[in-house]
Structure formats: C-alpha cells, structure tokens
Design goal:
The complex is a heterodimer of chains A (330) and B (129).
Chain A: E1 6-17, E2 21-23, E3 29-31, E4 35-45, E5 50-55, H1 61-68, E6 76-83, H2 97-102, E7 103-106, H3 118-128, H4 134-143, H5 157-170, E8 175-179, H6 187-203, E9 207-211, H7 215-218, E10 224-229, E11 232-238, H8 239-243, E12 246-252, H9 253-260, E13 265-271, E14 274-280, H10 287-293, E15 297-300, H11 303-310, H12 317-320
Parallel strand pairs in A: 5-9, 5-10, 7-8, 8-9
Antiparallel strand pairs in A: 1-4, 1-6, 2-3, 10-11, 12-14, 12-15, 13-14
Chain B: H1 8-21, H2 34-41, H3 45-58, E1 61-64, E2 68-71, H4 75-102, H5 106-116
Helix pairs in contact in B: 1-3, 2-3
Classes of the chains: A alpha/beta (330), B mainly alpha (129).
Chain lengths: 330, 129
C-alpha cells in the first residue's frame, strides 16, 4: 500500500543556536552572539513532489531539513506536516510520534549504529518505518555492493552513504528527506542512486526533499526548487518556472554579444572566438531565428548558473528574483 | 538531451512528434512508460507525464487502461498536415528573409530549388562576385 504523501509548511520559522542571556557589570542583560541558522522562513513543500533544496555551505539547508524530522526545534515560528489534502489537520512534528514515524530523514552522517552490523541498523529502521520494504532494501544492498554483515565503521565513506540511501528509499516514508546523502559515492553509484529514486518514486509517489551541492547532476530530478541563502528563502518555485527565468547563447563572440546587449548576464564563458552567456529572461520574438541564422545556439538556463549567481555575496541579483519569494512553491 | 530553451516537457513532446513523423514510432505502437522515460533520461516523472498528457490531448497518443500509451491511428497524417502548414511560415519565410538580407536574388533561389529537386541540373550562377 502506498500512503498519501506528506506536505509541509513553515511559517516565519527562526532557528538560532547558542543564544544566551548575559548580564553586564551594570546589571542589564544582553543577548550574546548566536548563530542564526534560519531567519524568518516561509515555505510550502508540495506533497508528492521531488523538491531540491539548494544552498551554499551554512545556508541553513540541514537545519531546515532536520526541523521537518523533529531533530531540531525552531526558536520561533510554526511548522506543520501532514498528508496531502487536509492541511488543517497537519501537525507540529516536534516530539510527535505520528509525524516522526512517517518522516525519514537521512543525514550526511548516516545515523547508523557504528558498532553493530549494517543489518542491525536496517532492522532498526525496518521496525520504525511502517512502510519499510525489505525486498527493496535487499535489492539495493546488492546494487550498491554493501555487505550487511560489516559494521559501518568498516565501510568506506561512499558505502556508508549507500547505506543511508538504502534506508531513505526502503523506508518509503510519505516524507523522505535526503540531506547530502551522496557524499563519497563515486559517479556511477550516484547515477544509480538517482535512477533508483526516480524509479521508486514513480511507482510509489511520495514527497522527497533532496539537498545537494552537485546541482548540475540533480537539477532534472526536481519538480520544485528551493534556494536558501544565509538562513532565508531566496527562491522557491517549480523548476519549470525557474527554467523560464533565462537561457543561454553559444556562438561567435560578436553575434552573441549583439543579442546579449542590454540584458542581465548571469554567466559568461569565453573560449577563443566562441562565447557562452547565460541571460535573464526569454528570447524575444524572432530573436531565436535571428540567433540561429547568425550561428548562435540557444540553450536552456543551467540551474547551476542561476544558483551561483543568486548566492554570490556581492550582487544585486537578489532584487531580480524578489518575485519568486512570495510564499514558496505552492 | 533536452538542452533547448523550452521547458523540458515541450522538448519531450517535440521528440515524440518527430519520431512519429519520421515513422520511427508506428501507429498503434506502444511508447515508453512515464517511469521508463524518467529513468532513461533521468528526469522527473512528472515532467514526462506532462509531455504525454499534452500529446494525448493533441491526439498524437492515446491511453489504454492498464497497458500504457500508444501512438494514435492517423497521428502521423495529422502531424504531417500540421507541419506542412507550418513549414512555409516557420522554415521557408525566415530562410527567404535571410536571403533578402544577404542580397540573394529570387531567381537564383528558384534555380537552386529546381536544381536540387532533381528536375534539371542546377544552373551555373553568374560569377559576378
């Protein structure tokens, strides 16, 4: 049986670590420097959709993801999680057995019992997860060539990640959260992992959140994309809409520059006489034909380029995407 | 694959239309399932599903319950008709406009067309340049 996928909603969520009230000599109190991991996040995660969570190191990705699995409690704001339609019945995940049974978070660390065999960790998750598929787990152990009789501490980084991937998929949780699960996996293993996600998701639709730094590799897996930056949501919208934010041109420098003139350039790369630029917006009517006639190839907007541009510290590009911040990927 | 500027589902639909037009996909032949498509091209299944449902609406594909998607009878003829209509506006008109920009006289184009069609050998162009 496939359960109804879970959605999630965050309203004005703030997470601060290490906040402390301190007293001055004069007797007044002040707040000591705390790290603000999330700073007023409003976000809706659509049920039954694969959402990509992108952000630079320290952007708040892992904090956001751990909130959903009740690993972290917000400093303020509300979080609601629950199945598809009836979102008035969604519940706060914090210390909520119903939510935690239905949410599988796999962290980069794997959360494995290091001194027990891998098979023991799998048994533990099998007991915890009502929709666990033991056959799938066994097949994936084979596929990723993980010996379940070994202890996690005896496995390579990539194999430990593979165990995390197996847990994440075999749990079949209505809300599956994969936080940088690919670390240490070699390229063939990563691609096998992506294929398994897609195949199993197609057969058993559920909500999958996937965070990764390998933007180019995973861009096409996403139906929705969230970009976090410095604890805030910079952009949250369907991948299709993101793709319409720009396009790329490749061809002879002069012809490319002519079309690019007056547009906001997200990325530029030059190789001899050939230039590739990534531009904001869409090609104007007739521009495509003119470009082709001039030997310029028009391509899609690489999510990677947009991501890099958006999260560069010194740029005003954030203003350009303000329209994308109006309340998340609904 | 699917690197064009259009949304990926538009490009997928275009690919299937081209395959039907070229006869690579015969009428009544089954097309890949959404799942096969998603894993083969490593794209989100919803993207593939969107392309397929668009093609069903267009009458290029049809759904057989529990079996999958098939190329609709008459799909190729319909697509040929549509593409023939679009050929003049989308392909020939821009080509002629470009010829205009380059200063290629119409009779030279006519001669080229007649020649390359195999009706008669392509006449030698006047060597003025």
């Amino acid at each position: 049986m496939t359960p109804a996928p879970f959605g999630a909603r965050l309203d004005d969520v703030v997470v601060r670590f290490g906040t402390q009230r301190r007293m001055t000599v004069a007797g007044t109190t002040y707040k000591d420097d705390a790290t603000t991991a999330l700073d007023g996040v409003d976000l809706t995660i659509r049920p039954g959709v694969i959402t990509g969570i992108l952000g630079r190191n320290g952007a708040g990705k892992s904090t956001l993801l751990s909130l959903l699995a009740s690993y972290t409690r917000p400093t303020s704001g509300t979080i609601r999680v629950g199945p598809d339609a009836a979102d008035d019945l969604w519940e706060d995940p914090w210390e909520n057995p119903w939510v935690t049974a239905n949410v599988q978070l796999v962290r980069e660390s794997g959360d494995l019992q290091d001194e027990e065999k891998v098979s023991e960790s799998l048994k533990y998750y099998a007991d915890m997860r009502p929709y666990w598929d033991a056959d799938l787990a066994a097949r994936l152990l084979d596929l990723f060539e993980v010996n379940p009789r070994k202890k996690p501490s005896a496995l390579s980084r990539g194999k430990r990640s593979a165990v995390g991937a197996i847990i994440g998929l075999a749990a079949r949780a209505p809300l599956t959260v994969l936080d940088e699960v690919y670390l240490g996996m070699d390229a063939p293993t990563r691609y096998a992992f992506y294929d398994e996600i897609l195949a199993d998701y197609a057969e058993h639709p559920r909500t999958i959140l996937l965070s990764s730094h390998l933007v180019e590799e995973v861009a096409r897996l996403f139906e929705d994309v969230v970009v976090l930056h410095r604890g805030k949501v910079l952009l949250a919208e369907p991948a299709e809409q993101i793709q319409a934010r720009g396009f790329s041109l490749t061809g002879p420098a002069r012809a490319v520059e002519q079309i690019a003139a007056g547009r906001r350039v997200l990325h530029r790369q030059q190789l001899g006489a050939t230039v590739q630029v990534t531009l904001e917006g869409a090609p104007a009517d007739g521009e495509s034909a003119a470009a082709r006639a001039a030997g310029v190839e028009i391509g899609s907007l690489p999510l990677q380029d947009l991501f890099v541009r958006l999260t560069q510290p010194d740029l005003d590009a954030r203003g350009a995407v303000a329209a994308g911040q109006d309340g998340g990927a609904r | 694959m699917f690197d064009g500027p259009e949304p990926i589902y538009v490009q997928i639909a275009q690919m299937i239309r081209s395959q039907v037009l070229a006869g690579e996909l015969a009428e009544e032949e089954q097309v890949m399932s959404t799942t096969q498509f998603a894993t083969t091209f490593r794209i989100n299944p919803a993207t593939a599903a969107k392309a397929f449902s668009g093609l069903v609406e267009e009458g290029v594909l049809y759904k057989r319950r529990g079996l999958g998607m098939f190329v609709a009878p008459g799909a190729r003829e319909r697509l040929l008709g549509q593409h023939r209509d679009a050929y003049f506006a989308d392909v020939l008109a821009p080509a002629l406009a470009q010829a205009d920009v380059l200063g290629i006289p119409t009779d030279e184009i006519v001669a080229y067309v007649l020649g390359s069609n195999g009706h008669q050998p392509r006449p030698t162009t006047t060597e003025e340049s």
